[in-house]
Design a protein that fits this description.
MetI-like fold, about 0% strand
Length: about 220
């Protein structure tokens, strides 16, 4: 017998937002670390590093996130490494974010005028100091808007973690829908919560993009 959708059901779904945010935060933080390593490898003069980073990006940008979740969760189990949905989702999303942030930041590094690097080289700065004090600070300003835009996509991408049993916002909606059989009500609430999470970030990304565009034209 189905039960009526009420306050407790709505609260269960709303409470699941915390797991969506936590998973997004972990994946973004891990992806940021991996992304900067990938970006630096992509612009490196060492060929194995460049090609290795490019292969990593091609794999994770060329396959669906859902497939990556399946491979991490079920693949590790097949080889005898037990893994729970929480760790599997965090690992798959971190690898996914590393590939995309790495490519975003690679483009931002290459967008810095070459004259900046040439001037720092002429001043005798070593590669580390040139990247740390000249190139990366300028690239960071360029990267803010697309990085925030990717974060929006990452938050929505966490919904796919429901397929391996991780109880985030979408999975909570599925559980309540199976109990109440009121999909319109349940998933309208789920959609509204995603909107509340993502729309302000989308506006912020658009604002930052316009702000830095104006700054670069001055």
């Amino acid at each position: 017998m189905f039960r009526t959708f009420g306050f407790n059901e709505a609260l269960f779904i709303i409470t699941a937002v915390q797991w969506t945010l936590l998973l997004s935060a972990i994946a973004f933080a891990g992806g940021a670390l991996g992304g900067i390593a990938i970006a630096l490898a992509r612009v490196s003069r060492v060929a194995p590093l460049r090609y290795g980073a490019l292969a990593f990006i091609r794999v994770f940008q060329g396959t669906p996130l859902l497939m990556q979740l399946f491979l991490v969760y079920f693949g590790l189990s097949i080889v005898g490494v037990g893994i729970n949905p929480w760790i599997a989702a965090a690992l798959a999303l971190t690898l996914h974010a590393s590939a995309y942030l790495g490519e975003i930041w690679r483009g931002c590094i290459e967008a810095v005028p070459s004259g900046q690097s040439e001037a720092s080289w002429a001043l005798g700065l070593k590669y580390r100091d040139r990247m740390r004090y000249v190139v990366l600070p300028q690239a960071a300003k360029i990267s803010v808007a697309p990085t925030v835009g990717f974060l929006v996509q990452l938050i929505k991408g966490t919904s796919l973690a429901s397929i391996i049993g991780f109880v985030e916002l979408t999975r909570a909606g599925q559980i309540i829908n199976n109990a109440t059989f009121q999909p319109l009500t349940v998933f309208s609430l789920v959609a509204a919560l995603y909107f509340v999470l993502c729309w302000p970030l989308s506006l912020w990304a658009r604002h930052l993009e316009g702000r830095f565009a104006v700054a670069t034209t001055r």
